[in-house]
Amino acid sequence: MFRGSMVALVTPMLEDESVDFDALEKLVEFHIASETDAIVAMGTTGESATLDFDEHCSVVRFVVEKVNGRIPVIAGTGANSTSEAILLTKCAKDAGADACLLVTPYYNKPTQEGLYLHYKKIAETVDIPQILYNVPGRTAVDLLPETVIRLASIKNIIGIKEATGDISRVSQIKSNVSTDFDLYTGDDESAVDFILAGGHGGISVTANVVPKQLHDVYAAALAGDEAKARELDAPLKSIHRDIFVESNPIPVKWAVAQMGLMGEALRLPLTPLSESCQPVVRKALLEAGVALK
Predict the structure, then answer these.
(1) 8 Å CB contact between 273 and 250
(2) What's the half-sphere exposure (Cβ side, CA atoms, 13 Å) at 1?
(3) Helix 226-233 / helix 211-222 crossing angle, nearest 10 deg
(4) N or C terminus of the chain: which is more exposed, having fewer CB within 10 Å?
(5) Dist. CA 116–CA 180, nearest whole Å
């Protein structure tokens, strides 16, 4: 349903930790001008865990309004409470989002049956395209391929963001689901391999700082041009790695701020990028040709 480079958009904030909607509008226009293929608002990179319900919905509505149909908007609506995830998903549908991205319930570590029933209930309750999101390094639970395959039979569950970096999962899932079930990577370092193995694109942190370059990388990989995809991706390797030198989204928010697109503020318990890590991220940006203020 969606293809290419989809940015896991950061949420700009003012020094009082409120959402900076002026900067958010600037980011929307930056990504549309840079040929980003879709915007994911209020994913985990957008600090969804620390925004309350009203703030969360306000950001999704604002992004949908400012995008105004020019590219798809996917709303992050996952939660570790099924009832809360349903409310967030309803809000996203009402706001006009094109789809929802639902991270696996974090901390409470449900079983595979619990994960299946969680996603099944959300999908049956809210009629909007839904994308599963598996990132066990952040959630302490792994949505296994066999559970994904079960969920793929539910009509409005349209794909998965698979962020384990395990390329073998592409074939495991793809060979057991219908052709219209999409697979997106959430691991920037292995994205080219993921797409060449049969994936359909990626939901990316790196895309916050090099959206046009990453669009071109993914387009080449989707076209099956491995040599071009790897050539275009080579200058981005340091960003893929060093944008995670501290917990996401600490480094990427600092990086976007250095580009002059927003301020550096985060919401506690996240803290600003440490001084010792700033040269590491700056070097990676410069190697990729990113213009800094």
Answers:
(1) yes
(2) 19
(3) 160
(4) C
(5) 20
**pLDDT for the residue 1:** 82
**pTM for the whole thing?**
0.96
Domain boundaries, the chain: 4-233
Is 133 marked active-site?
yes
Residues 4-233: name the CATH superfamily: Aldolase class I (3.20.20.70)
CA distances from 56 to 10, 52, 171, 186, 198 (A): 13, 6, 35, 21, 33
Which residues have a Cβ under 8 Å from the Cβ of 283 and sit 6 or more positions away?
Answer: 238, 242
Cβ neighbours for 168, distance < 8 A, ≥ 6 positions apart:
none
CB contact burial 233-260 (16+ within 10 A = b; e otherwise): beebebbbebbbbbebbbbbbbbbbbee
User: What does the alpha-carbon distance between residue 40 and residue 7 come to, in Å, rounded to a whole number?
Assistant: 6
Chain mean position to CA 61: 17
Q: Strands 99-103 and 73-76: what pairing?
A: parallel
**Residue 106 appears among annotated catalytic residues:** no
Catalytic residue among 161, 184, 218, 253: 161
Q: What is the pLDDT of residues 59-109, one digit of tens each?
A: 999 999 999 999 999 999 999 999 999 999 999 999 999 999 999 999 999
Query: Which candidate in 106, 116, 119, 133 is catalytic?
Result: 133
- Output the pLDDT for position 293: 82
